[in-house]
Amino acid sequence: MNTDIKYWLAFNQVKHLGPINFHKIIRGFPDLETAWKLGQRQDFLDVGLNEKQIEEIIQAKRQISPNDLEERLYKEEIKVVTVLDNDYPILLKEIYGCPPLIYYKGMIEQLSGPTIAIVGTRRMSSYGKLMTEKIARELVENQICIVSGLAVGVDAIAHITSLNFNGITAAVLGSGLSSYNIYPSINRKLAHNILEKNGVLISEYPPEMLPLKHNFPLRNRIIAGLSLATIVVEAGESSGALITAKYALEFNREIFAVPGNANSLTSAGPNNLIKQGANLITSAEDIFLNLNLQYTTNRREKISADSPIQQIILDQLSFEPIHINNLQKQTNLSAAELNASLTIMELQGKVRNLGNMHYTKNI
Length: 363
Description:
The structure is a single chain. This protein has helices at 5-12, 18-28, 32-38, 41-46, 51-63, 66-76, 90-93, 126-140, 154-164, 188-196, 215-225, 240-250, 268-275, 284-291, 308-316, 324-331, 335-347, and strands at 79-82, 101-106, 115-119, 145-148, 169-172, 200-203, 229-232, 254-257, 279-280, 322-323, 351-355, 358-361. Helix 13 links the parallel strand 8 (254-257) and strand 9. It contains 17 helices and 12 strands. Helix content is 45%, strand content 13%. By secondary structure, the protein is α/β, with parallel strands linked by helices. The radius of gyration is 24 Å and the shape is elongated.
């Protein structure tokens, strides 16, 4: 790590500076300690900053203590990696306007291996949940680090599936990493579990930064920038997941989309992406073929019936939930036969009980 890290922290606190202008300062001064302590108005003009930005720096110098910023990170066990450090994620460094520094908790080195993003709606369907679990599991089985945004819905399921199958996952936040700022609060336990399982939480924002609305589109550019490819599982036409896909396209990274029902609002986003040229994906193998990576499968054997009754049930099940009463009508089985068979098939992993007497075929 750079010995002048506290000055990186200080410049990152300057209002309205932004990554592009921060990079101008990095390039224009011998080091950031010199820039902070000795930089004059003309020096900052010479590197390409305007008067308003320079005034913000002058104001920050009066108000900010670099030593205090460094001490706070130490107390909160938050680490920092700068764009000049060897541990800075290589893929992220490739993008224009990459964050000059990122704050993190956990193991930043996990981002040095192959990484793929899984993103999608907060209001996923049962089909979206199943497909997220399927693809995430297959990626984990092939030693891929899954990157997502810790949001409720597809993001959380991608993280959870990775952890459940002993994989590595990285969560990119739109807030600071102080424990009380982890957003959404319902997923703070998930964030803790990610760290417990050797994953990593990262943010470009200082620890005290609140989860402000405008932070999240910028957060999405980091998700895309960290990843070889971005997978959109389910997303409405105005979903933030499509912003991530847009950034992936801008960064010349591959985009994959899970096809869905043409009448489903949550499939409108990925269906439109496919129309526009995104790669259609139904399993992780599609990604590996596209990226010319070796794919190994540990998937369970294709679900098969152990009896004629099981076959009748499987023929009527799909990845959309069906109530047991409707299933009974479609199969013409007695209630006793259906209940007994569903119980056995659930234990065998052939069907999934979603609660409230709704069932789907298991992936």
